[in-house]
């Protein structure tokens, strides 16, 4: 059981306090949703490789080292000496919700070309995961869709997380167009509440999910709604799964932890998407909710990811109370 996660890895500079001079202190953390997802999947018991491009600089070296330390296969990562590794400065509000300021014009992740990618990374995997951040600029956009189509031809399960970062797009119209193009290929779609509204304009999450499922024939749609839990649409059934009350410190990476846990649980089940039933999906959502909930109690993206045992312990404690 192996996931191949394609896209960006970057440095998240996360606020960790204030200096004696009253200035914000930032900590260097490994980040990027596809990289976070690969690390989360490993923590939940499946193999994962990451395919992406970094600069030949201290940040690119740091990211490779951190991914390897997480148990992620970095054999297929690409180092480009012509461009710098992308940086993102994270701002947190009083509720722990984050916003980003990117330094990426261009970043090495946007310059990845398909001929530089070793397709063995896809050949060896069971599931290919992609996002929309790699779709914001060429040549990465072209590369993304070429790899997606290759994975589809090879019969791989395709997972897509739009992970909308509006500051990286030229316009809302461009973002919708490219993300909707990405929706044409995926078997599993994970969207946050605001992303679903952005793509469909629907007033309710269920209505939006059903609209996407009908238009794109997506077998499984997952929706995260923060403290309200998560939802899924499979075989026409709409499922709600509550989350867990926690003290929020930093929401960075929570969705990646959620999805990495869910995908790992799905692969470990040994079932196909057609064989999954509502109870299967509900149990996977609950564990994924626990994984996401615990991650928001810690700072950083990748450093906040938890193991199956930690998530299960939270799930069990709630079941007993």
From TrEMBL:
Keywords: ATP-binding, Kinase, Nucleotide-binding, Transferase. InterPro entries: PfkB_Carbo_kinase, PfkB_dom, Ribokinase-like. Gene3D superfamilies: 3.40.1190.20. Pfam families: PfkB. GO terms for molecular function: ATP binding; kinase activity. Residues 2-305 form the Carbohydrate kinase PfkB domain. It comes from the Bacteria. Belongs to the carbohydrate kinase PfkB family. This is Carbohydrate kinase. It comes from Holdemania filiformis.
């Amino acid at each position: 059981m192996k996931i191949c996660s394609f896209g960006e890895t970057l440095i998240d500079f996360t606020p960790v306090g204030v200096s004696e001079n009253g200035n914000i202190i930032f900590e260097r953390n490994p980040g990027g949703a596809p990289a976070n997802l690969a690390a989360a999947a490993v923590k939940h018991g499946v193999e994962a490789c990451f395919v992406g491009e970094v600069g030949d600089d201290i940040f690119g070296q740091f990211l490779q080292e951190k991914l390897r330390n997480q148990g992620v296969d970095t054999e297929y990562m690409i180092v480009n000496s012509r461009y710098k590794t992308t940086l993102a400065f994270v701002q947190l509000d009083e509720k722990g919700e984050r916003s980003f300021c990117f330094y990426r014009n261009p970043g090495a992740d946007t310059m990845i070309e398909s001929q530089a990618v070793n397709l063995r990374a896809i050949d060896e995997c069971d599931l290919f995961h992609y996002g929309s951040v790699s779709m914001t600029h060429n040549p990465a956009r072209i590369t993304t869709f070429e790899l997606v189509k290759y994975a589809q031809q090879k019969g791989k399960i395709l997972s897509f997380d739009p992970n909308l970062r509006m500051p990286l797009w030229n316009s809302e119209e461009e973002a919708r167009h490219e993300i909707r193009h990405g929706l044409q290929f995926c078997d599993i779609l994970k969207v946050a509440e605001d992303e679903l509204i952005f793509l469909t304009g629907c007033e309710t999450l269920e209505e939006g999910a059903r609209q996407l499922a009908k238009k794109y024939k997506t077998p499984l749609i997952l929706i995260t709604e923060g403290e309200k839990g998560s939802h899924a649409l499979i075989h026409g059934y709409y499922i709600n799964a509550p989350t867990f009350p926690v003290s929020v410190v930093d929401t960075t990476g929570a969705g990646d932890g959620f999805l990495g846990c869910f995908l790992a649980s799905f692969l470990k089940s040994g079932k196909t998407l057609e064989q999954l039933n509502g109870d299967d999906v509900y149990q996977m959502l609950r564990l994924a909710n626990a994984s996401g909930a615990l991650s928001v109690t810690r700072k950083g993206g990748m450093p906040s990811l938890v193991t199956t045992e930690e998530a299960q312990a939270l799930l069990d404690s709630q079941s007993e109370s």
